[in-house]
Amino acid sequence: MRTKFRLAFFLLGLLGSISASSHAQAVFDPRSSEIIMKFEDFDFAGKFAALVQKDEESNYFLVDVTKLPTQFELMYFLKLTREVGYMALTDHGLTKQKAWFQVNKKYQEAEILKMFSELKNKVEEKATLFSETEKEQWIKDSVSGK
């Protein structure tokens, strides 16, 4: 009788670990070498951002940061995305020409793409309002945490 219980618990444990590992495999990892290679030469076709991957919980967007030509514009864009609150820049091994954003699936693709476009417009507007000296000072203050 004890052997049957042990066998049952063993099988339940095995089933649980198989289920957990298959769930873990369903989650997208932008740091994996396969994903890095897949998106290294991604063609945005003139777009600023694109939805490129989905998993059970999130949508993953790539942003073409070459459309933010200065360090100020890139840093200001990243600041604005953090302020939005529901976008998270994920760690990745891609070149500095692209940035990953992981967004909860409850937000629609069109909504997020519109948000990226609006944030880019805000960045461009701010860049025209600031002098080069003000941009440099803003960068220094951002880096130092002021």
Structure description:
- With 146 residues, this protein is α+β, with helices and mostly antiparallel strands.
- It is built from five helices and four strands; from the N terminus they run ααββαββαα.
- It has a four-stranded antiparallel sheet, with helices on one face.
- Strand 3 and strand 4 (98-104) form a beta hairpin.
- Mean pLDDT is 79; it is low at 1-25.
Fraction in beta strands: 15-25%
Coarse structural class: alpha+beta
Helix-residue proportion: 40-55%
The radius of gyration over CA amounts to 21 Å
Mean pLDDT: 79
Quick one: biggest sheet?
4 strands, antiparallel
Strand order of the largest sheet: 1-2-4-3
Outline: globular
Short account of what is shown:
The chain has 146 residues and is of the alpha+beta class. The chain has five helices and four strands, in the order ααββαββαα.
Task: Considering the chains and any ligands shown, give keywords for the structure.
5 helices, disordered N terminus, 146 residues, four-stranded antiparallel sheet, 4 strands
Secondary structure topology:
Layout: H1 2-26, H2 33-39, E1 49-54, E2 58-64, H3 71-84, E3 87-89, E4 98-104, H4 109-129, H5 132-144
Antiparallel strand pairs: 1-2, 2-4, 3-4
